[in-house]
């Protein structure tokens, strides 16, 4: 993103967050905003607990028909303020979530929280920029987003065309190194930064009032998991998280709410199959190029978008395990 494109106060905050984490600020201009819609249609929200409303995204790749709204997004409403968790793959997707929030509550949005770096969870941030809004993320998120700016914005342009208007990277200015609590007024959110799993910048958010745990892409239901961090780390983290019961969890992809920890079983099975099959391939001297056809093929038919992502997962697993 271009530092010159943000107000002075935000510019200082973004630079400070990025430089503190070793990030490289990209000078690439955002997608031109000329075609950005003046009003956005609100996304449909489902109340999963009092004051917790979730947009349930379709199982889909980014395309004009979904405008980039392909990951679950959550609105949390407190007595004094509200928070948004994840924002979609375009400014338009974020604007639709903002419109939904405004239709649901008159509380000001105080925090926009990103569960991790992937564009379907972060590129809608630009719709929420404004006085008093803090952007929150894992302490490794600024660098992760900065080094992927060109890739993420080019993807948005290619897949959405004019619907990507106004989309740009907005870095967090409030960073979570271990744990942090955010008070919305009689509603405290517990944020926890995790070691490398789905990515190296995964963050979970737990609403203490309703015991609702927003998991981001640490939990996939129905949509095949996507590996962009550490397979062994992800399995280890799930084992720990499974030991912490919650009234409900909100996955990054899948239903608006699922029982926890029961809902993790299918994902753990898939990731375990990736691990076992990749190790078996390596043990018999198979090449990395064989991984897409040799790893986790028994899971085909059990997951949406399996063909789109399993091959990449297989290669990532092979690469991680090759020299263990």
Automatic annotation (TrEMBL):
Domain Metallo-beta-lactamase: 70-253
A Pfam family of this chain: Lactamase_B
InterPro entries cross-referenced by the UniProt entry: Metallo-B-lactamas, NDM-1-like, RibonucZ/Hydroxyglut_hydro, SoxH-rel_PQQ_2, TAT_signal
Annotated Gene3D superfamilies: Ribonuclease Z/Hydroxyacylglutathione hydrolase-like
SUPFAM superfamilies: Metallo-hydrolase/oxidoreductase (SSF56281)
Source species, domain of life: Bacteria
NCBIfam families xrefs: SoxH_rel_PQQ_2
PANTHER family: ACYL-COENZYME A THIOESTERASE MBLAC2, METALLO-BETA-LACTAMASE DOMAIN-CONTAINING
Family label: Belongs to the metallo-beta-lactamase superfamily. Class-B beta-lactamase family.
Protein name: Quinoprotein relay system zinc metallohydrolase 2
